[in-house]
Amino acid sequence: MLVTTTTKISDLIKANPASIDAIASINKHFKKLKNPILRRTLARRVTIADAARIGGVSVEEFFEKLAEVGFEIDKNVLPDKPAEKQEEAEKVIATEGQVVDLDVRPVIEGGSDPFNMIMGAIKDLPEGAVLKIINTFEPIPLITILREKGYESKVERPEEGVVHTYFKKGETAKETDQSDAENFEPADFDSKMQEYCERLQTIDVRHLEMPEPMVKILTELEVLPEGHALFVHHKKFPKFLLPELKSRGYQFVQKKIDDHNIDFLFFK
Description:
Layout: E1 2-3, H1 9-15, H2 19-24, H3 36-42, H4 48-55, H5 59-68, E2 72-73, H6 82-89, E3 99-103, H7 105-109, H8 115-123, E4 130-135, H9 140-148, E5 151-159, E6 162-169, H10 189-195, E7 200-204, H11 212-222, E8 229-234, H12 242-248, E9 251-258, E10 261-267
């Protein structure tokens, strides 16, 4: 496989699982890649350039380790530079007002993805307040997601191994809620079920605790055969899943059974 700085970590792993150990050996931050939950949710969002910035290493170090496990490095391509673009996009936001602290280090150390916790904190953030995420690395994918929703950000490193990322709602910020479903242009549920009746994978995530339903759905979509649809029994509307579905090009239809049961069909 030919790789550049814009190659996604998930594509490396899919092409050669040995890349997990190779990347983990570069920096202590990348050892988290061995956790299957974090790997499934984060690797899809991060490029080699992003990961290098997160770990504070050069892309050349990445290339050296990847070459050792059989990847071909294309150094002639001049790709975009996400790290530089990100630095330009970050705004110096005022943090003198109300600041809500959210330390996600225990969650990550426990082997879970704090994405839902963070998005919940963003949703409940008081007007004019700033959310401060305390972490051990710069959450570039999160910054990108929230920037697209109109949030301003600032990153500080108060001490070695500690990163503070501040988020504040900008004038163009929008909420992530069920109204986002309109962007998927969902068709009639029953007709779609009939269309995919012979090309259907089915899972039930009602018994799973957060964030496992989201992880399970994304994992199944990763291996979903082309032209097939994923039928999901859920207990609630997965609003934090919507940005991930959009990034993968998926649409969905839904059918509410009762207050604790809702069926979904995900397809391209």
